[in-house]
Design goal:
- The chain is α+β, with helices and mostly antiparallel strands.
- It has four helices and four strands, in the order E-E-H-E-H-E-H-H.
- Among the domains are: 58 residues, no CATH class; 50 residues, no CATH class.
- 33% of the residues lie in helices and 10% in strands.
- The strands form two sheets. Strands 1-2 form a two-stranded antiparallel sheet. Strands 3-4 form a two-stranded antiparallel ribbon.
- The longest helix has 20 residues.
- The chain starts with a strand and ends in a 23-residue tail after the last helix.
- The model has no long low-confidence stretch (mean pLDDT 76).
Amino acid sequence: TYWFVQDWKEPHRFAPGSVFHLIEPDINQELYGLPEYLSALNSAWLNEAATLFRRKYYQNGAHAGYILYMTDAAQSTSDVDRMRQAMRDTKGLGNFRNLFMYAPNGKPDGIKILPLSEVATKDDFFNIKNATRDDLLSAHRVPPQMMGIIPNNTGGFGDVEKA
């Protein structure tokens, strides 16, 4: 229901359906314009996606942490099978374990461990988190020291009152 009030004593009620209210944002004003946070939504979604990816990465435990490259003929088939089973058992909760391989008369480079987890987890997680945090703070025009964020440099953020 829409009303029009000429004077405070004479309200006029419009009949339902007689007024068409076109809701269209106006970028030239703040009251009915686009919200200031709209430009930061992509940063917020990227921040959330990075966090969810990192959580799932560590929770599922199904990622390959390394490649065990065996070229030494000193190992028997049963040794290789037991090593495979030991590697399978390291997945899931508590998956950060060490393995021991005894290889008498083995070559120095007969068994190599090629780490993948260092490459996989080096996905710029902290850079993404910091960049998206800065985007959100600038969209809301909040000085970082007001949010309790610790500066990365020795100079700090400067004077909060002048920010």
